[in-house]
Amino acid sequence: MPATAGPPATGAVTGHVTFLGAGPGDPGLLTLRAVEALARADVLIGEPLVLDVVRTHCRADVGTMQPAQSNAHGEALNSAADLSAAAAQLVMASARTGKRVVRAVAGDPGFDSGAAAEMLACAHAGIPFEVVPGVAAAFGVPAYAGVPLSGNVRFVDAATAAARDCWSEVGASDATLVVATTLQTAAAVAGELVAAGRKPDTQLTVTVAGTTTRQRTWTATLGTIAAELKATKALPTPEGPIAAIAVVGEPTSHRQHLSWFETKPLFGWRVLVPRTKEQAASLSDQLRSYGAVPHEVPTIAVEPPRTPQQMERAVKGLVTGRYEWIAFTSVNAVKAVREKFEEYGLDARAFAGIKVASVGEQTARALIEFGVKPDLVPSGEQSAAGLLEDWPPYDPVFDPIDRVFLPRADIATETLVAGLVELGWEVDDVTAYRTVRASPPPADTREAIKGGGFDAVLFTSSSTVRNLVGIAGKPHNVTIIACIGPATAKTAEEHGLRVDVMAPEPSALALAQALADFGTARREAAEEAGDPVIRPSERRPGARRRTRV
């Protein structure tokens, strides 16, 4: 038996290692236990793609490292044993400094022979460790491809089967096979199985980039998969071996009914979200739920007013009872008042006795997070006009004070002010923040905007149209243009853009839903016509027609 190192010497500094499964690619598949471990990590070790999945759950000051791919002499480490040994040394060296180390691996650590070797090394060195399981690719990818795994299932690593020359044994089995392979060798694996006795008409699926919005699945038979891959020009690829999961057997026949992921309305669409960073988060989350890949480009930067005295007087007046109402027309207005409150040591209790109005649900959520439940939210259109529809006229009998505090942007329209005055109210229209044009996005983003690299762009205000065109240029004519309302659509058209989608109500979430409905209708029309379902960006001149994985 190999010697096992005893516990560290008394007084030695020893940290702790968590071997963590990052799943097959979808960050949403991380377990709650994994998120907890990542939040406590001092050092995060993993390959680049794995780090992209888990990094957002770590502290800002976490140290990140990648396992070495070469030795001290600069020579590439080619064998799995050498790579595992190098990774183990990095993990143990970090732990010996007394830090909490998270070693993140793709899939599940229990399915990773390299992770197992690293665990053994820690055990022999007396370094405490734990294992946080993750979703293994062999289970997660078929589920996302719409292929249920039930009954007699066998898991096979193609490289191991080839090395041990055991294809005859695998092929003789009548089990459903889940094969870890690569896109480049999938056809060869099919050939080996046919040679070993499997019928050429046995169905299979081959999935790459599983559980991510780059996922692509081919459905064929063992005898036709080579021609299928060649016909779709998936090969050759200059990027090197591309990991794939192949499922061989009867369960693949259910895919046409169970393919829930790749048939999402905006699956794989690159959608430009030109908003402020704070406003983009919830919209991007909704787009991801439709299968899209949101790309946030701030077009508006929010800055304090040039002269803060007006805002300071209004806030003091709010505390001293000057106002009957305060009306919030944006999340940024809530943020500006909240920051001013914090500056004065105030909190939501300062709103006691004052009626609070919100222009819509998103602004209302920001108020609730602040600890304030709005008294008035439009029952119809979520806009200044909708707010005025429900706003009560001033009544000197029931309203002891006739004044409204309206904190808003420097470029806000006069619709709400004019309407309130018409209803008999006095309005303190206060500049709470300024909106200025943001800096231009990176060159590759600008090129994608002008060259048709985005499938859609969502415009949530006239200013986002003007600012995006100003800092990055006009979107290509293949890009689907979606606007939040008539005024925004008019501005888009004035800039030479064709408006394809209009939100049924002036809400960012309604706009995202409208785009998803557009994507669904587009997919259904293509399927009914027997045409391939392709993204808008794939229609532009010079767009790559072969599969991008």
Tell me what the structure shows.
- This protein is an alpha/beta fold.
- The protein has 4 domains: 16-135, Cobalt-precorrin-4 Transmethylase, domain 1, CATH 3.40.1010.10; 138-258, Methyltransferase, Cobalt-precorrin-4 Transmethylase, Domain 2 (2-Layer Sandwich); 270-298 and 439-539, 3-Layer(aba) Sandwich (Rossmann fold), CATH 3.40.50.10090; 303-437, Rossmann fold, CATH 3.40.50.
- The protein is 37% helix and 18% strand.
- The chain has helices spanning 32-40, 48-54, 80-95, 113-125, 137-145, 158-164, 167-172, 186-195, 225-231, 255-258, 277-289, 309-319, 331-344, 361-370, 384-390, 415-422, 443-451, 462-472, 486-494, 508-529, and strands at 16-21, 43-45, 63-65, 100-105, 129-132, 153-157, 176-182, 203-208, 216-221, 243-248, 270-273, 293-296, 300-303, 325-328, 355-358, 403-409, 426-437, 456-459, 480-483, 501-502.
- The protein has a 5-stranded parallel sheet with strand order 3-2-4-1-5, sandwiched between helices.
- Helix 19 links the parallel strand 19 and strand 20 (501-502).
- 41% of the residues are buried.
- Mean pLDDT is 89; it is low at 1-11 and 544-549.
Features:
single chain, 549 residues, alpha/beta, Cobalt-precorrin-4 Transmethylase, domain 1, Methyltransferase, Cobalt-precorrin-4 Transmethylase, Domain 2, Rossmann fold, 4 domains, five-stranded parallel sheet, five-stranded mixed sheet, disordered N terminus, disordered C terminus
